[in-house]
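Postdoc handover notes: sequence design on the structure in folder B. Input tokens:
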């Protein structure tokens, strides 16, 4: 269980770096008491991840171990491209904190619960549960996400600006590629001929498709109009919050 807790903490912490949940945490903490925001994040994360470990436990019981490891490796490659592409808040998500007037705890918890559904941290938790003790994964993944969001709140409060998202995203991407290569290398000797061919094709498609998606996202970002007349510090952009 301890091994599952530590691995899950590390993977989810990395997955959360630069994620939109960190941006939401900074946005809420800029307006409300930081400890209420963290309590809301913790409650939403615990609920989301208990559902994730349930799904992962069911999948782990139905799929051969070597295939689970190969799928986990491919998933880590997907998470790498997902992180490299970057994440921003939608207009609705960025405006959530501005609309909160009552029950900050419930508002934060519900916002984070909805934001995490289908997010890479939820998918990472499902993947981890197929290979490790479910309780350790639940506790570790919950603590990993809360720690990452607490870091975002603390650094945002100290610096008065966003985290250096691009550098963090690159570092997290490298770690995910490393995790993926490690798992695929572990699974490869146990796979039969057909499984190796399928796994190789899936990895190739993932690498090519992921590269194209990232390239398209970066081109779109570069082509986005900017307004140089407005001072940067007074106009928060995508993925950036003004802290007071």
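Designed sequence:
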């Amino acid at each position: 269980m301890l091994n599952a807790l530590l691995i899950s903490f590390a993977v989810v912490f990395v997955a959360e770096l630069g994620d939109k949940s960190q941006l939401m945490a900074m946005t809420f903490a800029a307006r409300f008491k930081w400890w209420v925001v963290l309590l809301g994040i913790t409650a939403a994360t615990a609920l989301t991840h208990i559902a994730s470990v349930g799904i992962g436990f069911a999948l782990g019981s139905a799929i051969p171990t070597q295939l689970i490891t190969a799928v986990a490796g491919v998933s880590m490659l997907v998470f790498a491209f997902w992180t490299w592409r970057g994440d921003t808040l939608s207009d609705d998500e960025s405006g959530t904190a501005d609309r909160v007037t009552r029950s900050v705890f419930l508002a934060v918890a519900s916002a984070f619960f909805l934001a995490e559904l289908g997010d890479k941290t939820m998918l990472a938790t499902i993947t981890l549960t197929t290979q490790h003790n479910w309780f350790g994964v639940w506790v570790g993944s919950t603590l990993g996400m809360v720690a990452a969001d607490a870091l975002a709140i603390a650094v945002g409060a100290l610096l008065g600006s966003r985290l250096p998202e691009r550098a963090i995203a690159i570092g997290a991407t490298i770690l995910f590629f490393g995790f993926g290569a490690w798992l695929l290398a572990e699974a490869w000797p146990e796979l039969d001929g057909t499984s190796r061919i399928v796994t190789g094709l899936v990895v190739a498609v993932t690498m090519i498709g992921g590269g194209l998606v990232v390239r398209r996202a970066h081109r779109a970002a570069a082509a986005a109009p900017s307004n140089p007349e407005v001072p940067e510090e007074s106009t928060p952009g995508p993925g950036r919050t003004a802290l007071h």
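Context for whoever picks this up: Residues 193-223 form the longest helix (31 residues). Don't rerun without checking with the PI first.
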